[in-house]
Automatic annotation (TrEMBL):
InterPro entries: Tetraspanin/Peripherin (IPR018499), Tetraspanin_EC2_sf (IPR008952), TSN6/7_LEL (IPR048232). GO terms for cellular component: plasma membrane. This is Tetraspanin-7. May be involved in cell proliferation and cell motility. CDD domains: TM4SF2_6_like_LEL. It is a multi-pass membrane protein. It is found in: Membrane. Keywords: Glycoprotein, Membrane, Transmembrane, Transmembrane helix.
Amino acid sequence: MLKLYAMLLSLIFLIVLVAAVVGFVFRHEIKTNFESNLNLALRDYNVTADRHSEAVDTIQRTLHCCGVQNYSDWERTEYFTQRGIPRSCCKSQDDCSEEDLKDPSKAKLKGCFFLVTSTMESKMSVVAGISFGIACFQDVWPSPL
């Protein structure tokens, strides 16, 4: 039973180590892929309960941002020509009229791409620290075998 426990801990450590290395090695590809997918989500944005549109709204509301690089990304979308910016882009969620949606000065200024990637990078350092701590703990803990 103790051998199985030790093997399981080793397997978990290897999985965490491989995930951390893959994430670090492919971080630029992950960022590029995220940016292109966010641009696609803006281009195809609609008011219906589309999961991509809901994700864009959630990101914009949560991180207090608008667009990929900034609010002007919305100006290149079909949605903007018909309705303006989405309500999730308004500086004031409580006081955002139909006229405000057509006025880019009412939009949040920061773009979402930088905020999302910097948030992910800050969380990755926490994950790396925890993984390192677990690895050290496994090496220090006396083997029951």
